[in-house]
Amino acid sequence: MTASVPMSAIAAVMAPVFIVAALGFGWTRARLPFDRAFVTTFVVNVATPCLVFSTLTRLRAEASDVTALALAAATAVLLAGGSGALAMLALRLPLRPYVPAFAFPNAGNMGIPICLFAFGETGIGYAVVFFTVLAVFQFTLGPAIAAGRADLRQLLSTPLVPVVIVALAVRATGLPLPAWLTNTTGLLGNCAVPLMLVSLGVALAGLRLKGTVRALALSALRLATGAAAGWAAATAFGLEGTMRSVVILQSAMPVAVFNYLWAAKFDNAPEDVASMVIASTVLAMLLLPVLLVFLAPG
């Protein structure tokens, strides 16, 4: 998509994401009933694993392409986290609260829906691969950095890992799946995107902005280093077309809410991390449409 793209095309991608997230935000502000524990548990343990399984088993891509995409995603996460660590050392800020915020973008709640609306079924397939790699890092390196120690039980306790293993095995063997299974996982997986966005709005409504100038500055740095890391990783692995665009776009997403949860759990300046979640999301609303102009197909 070139710079002459009509704004209606960008609005078609971004508006549904922000409207549904705003619905969750307004719902919480209006103090309407919302069972956050149930929705979060359902999304993490049922809807998202079903989305991953359904998408990976239906994804029309060569194994070599999926492998290259996964390696690019891992590289982008590590590059963004490393860049954040160097920046924090230069600014004399603590590593444990901020490095996860730089390393782990919101490739789930925000990234998957945006890639879906921007690139269609192919885009969401690639976005889910990126998110799956990110989730593995987020449930291993995330708490390890926040706590100062590794805990493999955290990774093994999430259903995403066995689901990915089974989905990859199905792809590798070409095993035909019964219609009842594909229909069920597809139906449950379709719940993930709207619930992710509503949950994002609900989470943002519960956070508070602190140290606005620093939060905005660090958030702008996170978005820039994320996009740069995605571009470098996509270039290094020779990704092209939609696959390249998805890696760059997913890497440029704002700070994931999960980073705040780890910071709160281990008492690592949770208010500062919450401020980055809010500030980076606001900045993303302004900057992602610009990025889409150069990434989305014409």
Secondary-structure map:
Blueprint lengths: L6 H23 L6 H23 L4 H29 L3 H9 L3 H32 L2 H7 L4 H5 L3 H14 L5 H12 L1 H14 L6 H25 L4 H11 L5 H9 L4 H26 L3
Helix pairs in contact: 1-5, 1-10, 1-14, 2-5, 2-8, 2-9, 2-10, 3-4, 3-5, 3-11, 3-12, 4-6, 5-10, 5-12, 11-12, 11-14, 12-14, 13-14
Describe the protein in words.
This protein has 14 helices and no strands. The chain is 80% helix and 0% strand. The protein is globular and about 55 Å long. With 298 residues, the chain is mainly alpha-helical.
Highlighted features:
298 residues, mainly alpha, Na+/H+ antiporter like fold, 14 helices, globular
**How many extended strands?**
0
Q: Classify the secondary structure makeup into a structural class.
A: mainly alpha
The CATH class designation is Mainly Alpha
Helix content: over 70%
The CATH topology: Na+/H+ antiporter like fold
Globally, the shape reads globular
Largest sheet: none
**Tally of alpha and pi helices:** 14
Oligomer: single chain
Beta content comes to under 5%
Spatial gap, N to C terminus: 4 Å
The H-and-E topology, N to C, reads as HHHHHHHHHHHHHH
Global Rg: 18 Å
**CATH-scheme architecture:** Up-down Bundle
Mean pLDDT: 89
Question: What is the count of structural domains?
Answer: 1
Unreliable spans are: none
Summed up, what is this model?
The chain contains 14 helices and no strands. With 298 residues, the chain is an all-alpha fold.
